[in-house]
C-alpha cells in the first residue's frame, strides 16, 4: 500500500525544498550568489558556496516549451558534488509560452517533482531546487545526465529502446495504479478536465486545419476529412482514457523527453520533462511512444510484444492488467492520440527545421496507426 506522507523516495532523494522563495531568473542569467542560496536549501548542497557560474544555453528550438542551460560551476571544498547542473526555466518564445500557460505546464512539472517523483521507482532526474511564481516564471535545478543521450524524435525509437521504455513505464504506473484520487495529486489534472481536456475542445478544430495546411500530404484523405466526426467524439474518448484503471502518466512520452544510455551500471532510460503529467490510463504513455516515436513498420512488428512486456512488468509490481485488455486499450489509445499529433503540430511555433521534421514524422506515424487500427470505429 502506498504511503502518502512525505519522506525520501526510493532513490534516496530527500523532498525538494523551495524555501525561502527567491526571485526567479532565466537560466542563462543565474549568478553564483543566487545559485548558492538556491542549492543551499537542499541537504546535498548545504554549506557549499558556488564561486563561479558559466551558463551554456541548450536545446534552442528543440526544448520548445522551456529554456534550458547547462551551468558549469565552481564551488568550495571537495564534496563529491557535480561541476555541472541543468537549469530549466519558462520559455521566452511567446507562442509556445502561451500554450504552456494555457495548459499550466510549468506548475504541473513543479507539482510532479514536489509530490509524485518520490513515490515511484521510475528513473527521473534528481532535482535540487524548483519554484514557480504567479506569472508562470519557473525554475528547476536538476542533475546533468551527461552519459545519457537524448532520443531523436525524427529518427525514432529502436526496438530495444522501446522495450526499456515499456519496463520503465510499468514502474512509473504500477506504483500509483488506481491510487491517484487523493488530494496530494490535485495539481496533476485528470485527462478529462477543465485544465486539460476542455482546452482541446477549443483548440483542436483550428489546429486540425493548420496541420492539413502544413502536413496535409502526410494525412490519409479519409482521416483528413473526418475533422467534425473526430471532434464530436473527443469528450467520450477523453472520458474513456481518464476512467479507471488510472494512474500518473507522463503525458508527453516521446523521444524528445527520454534520455538513453547503454553503459553498464547506468539506467537504460531516464524520463525527463514532466510538464504534461496527467491522471489517466497508463497505456496512454506506451501508445503515445509507439504510435508517434517509432517508425511505422517497426511499430507493427513489435507493438504486441511490447504491450506484453508492459503487462509482465506491471505484474512484477503487483498489478493485474490482462494482456488482451491492455491490447484493446492500446489500440484505442493510439487512435485517440491522433489528437496529440494534431495539437502539437497545429499549435506550436516551428522555430527551426528540426522541429518541422519531427512534427512531420509524428503526423505521419500517428495517422498510420489510426488507420491501422480503424480509428473510425471509436468515433
Please describe the topology of this protein.
Elements: H1 32-39, E1 50-58, E2 66-75, E3 84-90, H2 94-102, H3 105-116, E4 127-132, E5 138-143, E6 149-150, H4 159-174, H5 197-215, H6 221-224, H7 227-232, H8 234-242, E7 247-249, E8 258-260, E9 269-271, E10 278-280, H9 283-292, H10 296-316, H11 323-336, H12 338-347, H13 353-372
Antiparallel strand pairs: 1-2, 2-3, 3-5, 4-5, 6-8, 7-10, 8-9
What is the count of helical runs? 13
Class of secondary structure makeup: alpha+beta
Any idea how many domains? 2
Please state the second-level CATH architecture of the largest domain.
Alpha-Beta Complex
Strand order of the largest sheet: 1-2-3-5-4
Largest sheet report: 5 strands, antiparallel
End-to-end C-alpha gap:
38 Å
Residue stretches low in confidence (pLDDT < 50, at least 5 long) are 1-15
Describe the structure.
The chain has 379 residues and is an alpha+beta fold. The protein has two domains: 27-143, Phosphorylase Kinase, domain 1 (2-Layer Sandwich), CATH 3.30.200.20; 149-378, Aminoglycoside 3'-phosphotransferase, Chain: A, domain 2. The chain has helices at residues 32-39, 94-102, 105-116, 159-174, 197-215, 221-224, 227-232, 234-242, 283-292, 296-316, 323-336, 338-347, 353-372; strands at residues 50-58, 66-75, 84-90, 127-132, 138-143, 149-150, 247-249, 258-260, 269-271, 278-280. Helix 10 packs across helix 11 and helix 12 (338-347) runs antiparallel to helix 13. The relative contact order is 0.13. Mean pLDDT is 89; it is low at 1-15.
Amino acid at each position: 500500500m502506498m504511503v502518502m506522507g512525505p519522506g525520501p523516495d526510493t532513490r534516496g532523494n530527500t523532498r525538494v525544498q523551495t524555501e525561502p522563495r527567491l526571485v526567479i531568473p532565466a537560466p542563462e542569467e543565474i549568478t553564483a550568489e543566487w545559485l548558492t542560496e538556491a542549492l543551499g536549501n537542499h541537504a546535498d548542497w548545504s554549506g557549499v558556496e558556488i564561486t563561479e557560474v558559466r551558463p551554456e544555453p541548450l536545446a534552442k528550438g528543440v526544448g520548445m516549451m522551456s529554456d534550458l542551460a547547462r551551468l558549469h560551476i565552481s564551488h568550495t571544498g571537495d564534496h563529491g558534488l557535480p561541476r555541472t547542473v541543468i537549469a530549466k526555466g519558462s520559455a521566452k518564445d511567446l507562442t509556445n509560452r502561451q500554450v504552456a500557460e494555457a495548459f499550466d505546464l510549468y506548475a504541473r512539472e513543479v507539482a510532479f517533482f514536489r509530490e509524485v517523483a518520490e513515490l515511484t521507482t521510475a528513473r527521473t532526474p534528481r532535482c535540487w531546487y524548483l519554484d514557480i511564481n504567479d506569472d508562470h516564471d519557473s525554475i528547476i535545478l536538476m542533475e546533468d545526465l551527461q552519459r545519457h543521450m537524448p532520443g531523436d524524435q525524427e529518427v525514432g525509437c529502436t526496438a530495444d529502446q522501446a522495450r526499456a521504455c515499456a519496463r520503465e513505464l510499468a514502474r512509473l504506473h504500477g506504483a500509483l495504479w488506481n491510487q491517484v484520487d487523493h488530494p496530494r495529486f490535485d495539481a496533476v489534472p485528470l485527462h478529462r478536465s477543465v485544465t486539460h481536456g476542455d482546452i482541446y475542445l477549443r483548440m483542436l478544430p483550428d489546429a486540425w486545419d493548420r496541420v492539413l495546411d502544413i502536413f496535409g500530404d502526410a494525412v490519409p484523405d479519409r482521416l483528413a476529412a473526418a475533422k467534425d466526426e473526430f471532434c464530436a467524439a473527443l469528450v467520450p474518448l477523453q472520458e474513456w482514457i481518464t476512467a479507471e484503471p488510472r494512474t500518473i502518466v507522463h503525458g508527453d512520452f516521446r523521444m524528445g523527453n527520454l534520455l538513453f544510455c547503454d553503459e553498464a551500471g547506468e539506467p537504460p532510460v531516464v524520463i525527463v520533462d514532466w510538464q504534461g503529467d496527467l491522471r489517466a490510463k497508463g497505456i496512454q504513455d506506451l501508445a503515445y511512444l509507439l504510435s508517434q516515436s517509432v517508425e511505422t513498420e517497426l511499430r507493427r512488428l513489435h507493438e504486441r510484444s511490447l504491450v506484453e512486456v508492459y503487462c509482465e512488468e506491471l505484474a512484477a509490481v503487483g498489478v493485474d492488467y490482462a494482456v488482451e485488455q491492455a491490447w484493446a486499450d492500446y489500440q484505442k489509445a493510439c487512435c485517440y492520440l491522433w489528437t496529440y499529433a494534431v495539437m502539437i503540430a497545429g499549435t506550436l511555433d516551428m522555430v527551426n527545421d528540426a522541429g518541422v521534421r519531427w512534427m512531420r514524422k509524428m503526423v505521419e506515424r500517428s495517422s498510420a496507426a489510426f488507420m491501422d487500427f480503424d480509428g473510425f470505429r471509436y468515433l
